[in-house]
Amino acid sequence: MATSVNSAFADSVSESTHSAVKFRELERQAGKKGLFRTNMTNYSIGDFLIKIKNAAMARNKNLTVSSTKSIAAIAQALKKLGYLDEVKKDKDMLELALTFKNKKPFLTDLKLVSKPGLRIYMRADEIEKKKGPSIFLISSPKGIISSRQAVKDRIGGEVIAELT
């Protein structure tokens, strides 16, 4: 059995066709003033705490962050614990001054415990068992409090971060 192939259309298939490709203009081009990127984040609390940690590691005394109710509450809790010297609210921004002792930041380490994909909750007795040099920031019905205050008030909640 013989096979015959009609190659009349093979010409158009093998031709090189170039299609026009369009690229979107970059959002922020070099030299264009006045354009800035907004900070897109899924977890503003985690972003805020990491900014504080980075500022402490870089030995920056001052830091400006965008403000929300939860971030302002955490900043006040950190001030009460002695990690921040000053918290000022200016429009929708918070101006923070980190605490330094002997030219070294008071905040040495910070670990995020609860994350958007995995929330960690502790009862007061579980917090009491975790006693040690570290302090937990806890979101409770009474607001953002330290682990010491949570044990004292016999209250639990979501563990936001661990500070050492």
Concise summary:
The protein has 164 residues and is an alpha+beta fold.
Ordered list of secondary-structure elements with their pairings:
Blueprint: H1 10-14, H2 44-57, E1 62-66, H3 69-81, E2 84-90, E3 93-98, E4 100-101, E5 104-105, E6 110-112, E7 121-122, H4 124-129, E8 135-140, E9 143-146, H5 147-153, E10 157-163
Antiparallel strand pairs: 1-3, 2-3, 4-5, 6-10, 7-10, 8-9, 8-10
The CATH architecture of the largest domain can be given as 2-Layer Sandwich
How many helical elements? 5
Rg measurement, Å:
27 Å
CATH class of the largest domain: Alpha Beta
For the record, the count of structural domains works out to: 2
Shape: extended
Keywords: Ribonucleoprotein, Ribosomal protein
Family: Belongs to the universal ribosomal protein uS8 family.
Organism: Candidatus Woesebacteria bacterium GW2011_GWB1_45_5
InterPro entries: Ribosomal_uS8 (IPR000630), Ribosomal_uS8_sf (IPR035987)
